[in-house]
From TrEMBL:
The enzyme's E.C. designation: 2.7.9.3
Gene label: selD
GO cellular component, one term: cytoplasm
Keyword Calcium carried by entry: no
Organism of origin: Algoriphagus aquimarinus
CDD domains from the UniProt entry: SelD (cd02195)
InterPro entries, per the entry: PurM-like_C_dom, PurM-like_C_sf, PurM-like_N, PurM-like_N_sf, SelD_I, SPS/SelD
Residues where ATP binds: K20, H49, K50, D51, D69, D92, G140, H141, S142
Name this polypeptide is given: Selenide, water dikinase
Gene Ontology biological-process entries: selenocysteine biosynthetic process
Amino acid sequence: MENTPTRLTEWSEGSGCGCKIAPAILDQILTASGSFSQNDPNLLVGNSHKDDAAVYQVSEDLAVINTVDFFTPIVDDPFDFGRIAAANALSDVYAMGGKPIFANAILSWPVEKLSPDLAAKVMEGAKTICKAAGIELAGGHSIAAKDPIFGLSVNGIVHPHKIKTNNAAKAGDIIYLTKQLGVGVLATALKRQKITDKDYLSLVDTACRLNSIGEILGNHEEVHAMTDVTGFGLLGHLIEMCEGAGLSAEINLLKLPMIEGVQEYINQFIFPDNTYRNWNAYSAKTKGVVGMDLVKLCDPQTSGGLMLAVDPENKAWFEDSMKQQDQVIWEIGRFIERNEQVVEVLP
């Protein structure tokens, strides 16, 4: 075996969900291919509004959720890489209000340059998260390739009347987040070997935390819409929610929850290059962003939290319910009637 570096992040230009194809290019690909037309009435959720997973109805009271998510290493520890990739893939099922039932692994590995033992540790990490989610890692598919890539295809179930989509918000709905922001910044600090041990633990803890509250939220009628915040950053996924529902949104910059220590790295200009890619894609639809505030809004998240649209009339009841579930939430803004700009950032 060649004497090559074993720091996994050295093998990836991007990392985690920051590897996503730029929004404009992805739109070009999907539009040109015409591959997502929906003619099957049982396909309840496809790609028409850029939702988190596909949902197919199989009976009057049962629908199947399917999603696939994979990426290049976001951390150097292979066990942690596997855990983060698995938690991230499972999140798409939770974001639909569903219950995951099993998963298959997707593995690309440069077997001539990176030890297969490292790939085994990636798999171990994924199995740990699947066990925490109460599901089996049933199988998978692998290829030998020049880049290490890992992820899962996850299947889940949901009642057809309890599906949560990203395009059903209503004017006046309150916007909540279930995780702090800043994973992309911390991952970049790690890649540049600038991260502290404490901040690394924060990165892994945040990214490995399951969004399993989404399954419970599927039963909450006051939650009108839901998505998870990943590679397009908070701003990108909020704009998807707005455009899907024909609305705009106001968010309060000071209310955005950031992982402790993230601002210090931003002050040192340590953040993902794809932060600018996201900003370039969404800046024309946004107003009120000043200077480096764009980093908080456009930092590509990996295994980020859920973003919720909640009926304001049920605000107190909802917040109390989340406390009873030991689920921390942050109120960051509200959806409003559509105006000239899709998102306005308030100071």
